[in-house]
Amino acid sequence: MIPPMIATQDLTLRVDGRLLVERLDWRVNAGESWCVIGPNGAGKSTLLRTVAGLRSPDGGTVALAGKPVGDWALPALARERAYLAQSRGDAFAYRVIETVLMARHPYHADRYWEGSDDHAAAEAALRTLDVAHLAERDVRTLSGGERQRVAIAALLAQDTPLLLLDEPANALDLAHQVAVTELMARLCREGRAVVSVGHDLNLAWSGATHALLLNGDGSWHAGATQDVMRPELLSACLGHPIAAIAHGARTVFLPDAPAAITHLAPVRTTQ
Amino acid sequence: MSVLPAASRTRQRVIVLVLTVCALLALAAAGLAGSVPVPVADLPQALASVLSGAPDTMSATLLDLRLGRASAAFATGAALALAGVMMQALVRNPLADSYVLGVSAGAAVGALAALLFGAALWMVDLGALAGAVGISLLLYLLARRDLGGGRSSGREAVRTGESGVLLLTGVVLASACMALVTLMLSVAPESRLRGMVFWMIGDLAGASWRLLPWIVLGLAVLLALRRARALNVMALHADAAVALGIDVGAQRRFLFLCSGLLTACAVTTGGSIGFVGLVVPHACRHAFGPDHRILLPAATLVGGSFLVVADTLARTVLAPQQLPVGVLTSLIGVPVFLFQLHQLHLRRR
User: Fold this and answer.
1) In angstroms, rounded to a whole number, what is the distance separating the alpha carbons of residues A84 and A171?
2) pLDDT tens, A246-270?
3) pLDDT at A266
């Protein structure tokens, strides 16, 4: 039997003593696209970083392809999973093509220069993300959305069976949000596994096959989207009433009744 | 579109070749120029006798003295520029240099203490080395987390590496050292003050042939070039570097150790020479781009040549009066730096 791409057992996550996720048993198989949903500070990024091997679990285990994540050699791990960080601070004036070529590093760290195969992979990734025309630009001069697409292109060039994305739709315009969501769905059909954190329920519904809800108090729900993305579960998770409305063959998620907004303090007006 | 795979390789070779020729020209100029010029026609023969180890003619003796000083200048400038590139990659800030982390300030405390007590010249060098190494160790202990010191933290160190603990600790240690330096300067007797001030500004007047800085420099360049690709990824983003299979903690420790050693070597030879470690990497990045595979050799060659030219000017401009070379590097460096910064600012708007 093929081991699952990600398997966590009793995974517990804490940040500064605060319990975020308790005893998470979670399996992600090849061909599945997972969205991780939860309120701010619920531990979505922490979970992603833990699975990526960038921090150690506070309890329990994480295994990638059947092997505990801490046992992977770093270069081999880099050929297994790619990770999109939530934000990037560019200190130096690298060109776009250079940042994407760097994603080829795990394949031949011993080469001093990239080969033509690396260039081919990088340029294909740039074309897929519709940023080929920016190849020679200084990354620091890009707009937020362009920079995000270049970062996703680098992820593609890394060419791994598992992709972990922290808010890939950040800063993207509507068309590119949809395009990236479709791209991730296509990668899953090709047999890869995708886990992405996101706040847009409609994008998650249209792109993902499975969902993981983190409630922020340690509890969680995992399963196929139609089982987990139910209004009552989502409302409890996000702390705001959410309605699912059938619109033809599609389902649309909307925040319900503005009168029910209780979790924000009322705006005080001074006379 | 974009570059062909072979193009960047060719580009690096051309850049390194041109810069090597520039460096040789700078060294030749340093050998020929002075209050008693060496005629160009005498150069091949004099050079041959210097290399054979027994300078017999007037020209050969002059060349021996000047080239000795120029070689020390080259090694010092190259070490400072290379340390600057490494330090900037380490803290991911193009405005950092090894002086910011207090290594040279520590060296100044050691050297000035030796000068204050009227110690021999080798004691001054030893004091500078001890000060530089001492501050590096202290910095390492205080910012260990930032450098991924502890066990199994190669992966954990990532986040902390972004926090700037190392940079801030270095800045604070540097100001503590400067306070000590000021204290020593204020209590020093008049007769020793001049030597102390000259050391502070950076002076190559006493420098001659020396092997050790060249060995350290050569090793540092070789080791750094092997890691140039990893440095690129780290300079881009620390989180991405770990995700791409780079042991960031180990690389950061290497950068710290290497730049500390280079700085210690440089200050022991020439005192605290300012601006080379900041301006040269900056100018090279501006001219050749931030790719460390090109930047590392380029900055090394440019840094060496820059200090050779500055030192040659320092001893010829007001000859027979000799200026401390640190004054010239700052006088040349500051306007160049400001000009570039301003240009960049305009272009980005």
Assistant:
1) 14
2) 888 888 999 887 654 555 555 655 5
3) 58
Instruction: Tell me the residue type at B112.
Output: L
Mean pLDDT of chain A: 90
The more confidently predicted of residues B162 and A98 is A98
Ramachandran region, residue A43 (left: φ > 0; alpha: ψ -120 to 50; beta: rest) = left
Contacts of A109 in chain B (CB under 8 A): 229-230, 245
Contact assignment for B285 to A93 by CB distance below 8 Å: yes
B164 touches chain A (CB under 8 A): no
Share of chain A above pLDDT 90, in %: 74
pLDDT of A62 reads: 95
Cα of A128 to nearest chain B Cα, Å: 15
Of B2, B290, B291, the CB nearest to A136: B2
**What pLDDT sits at residue B158?**
45
Q: Which residue ranges form the domains of chain A, and what is each CATH number?
A: 1-65+161-271 (3.40.50.300), 88-160 (no CATH)
Which residues 124-153 of B are in CB contact (within 8 Å) with A? 152
CB B80 within 8 A of CB B132: no
Average pLDDT (B173-177) is 91
Please check whether residue A109 touches B, CB under 8 A: yes
3-state secondary structure B8-69: HHHHHHHHHHHHHHHHHHHHHHHHHCCCCCCCHHHHHHHHHHHHCCCCCCHHHHHHHHHHHH
Q: Does A91 sit within 8 Å of B92, measured CB to CB? A: yes
Determine the average pLDDT of the residues in A107-125.
86
Kindly identify which residue of chain A lies nearest to residue B93, measuring between CA atoms.
A91
The CATH homologous superfamily to which domain B5-348 belongs is: ABC transporter involved in vitamin B12 uptake, BtuC (1.10.3470.10)
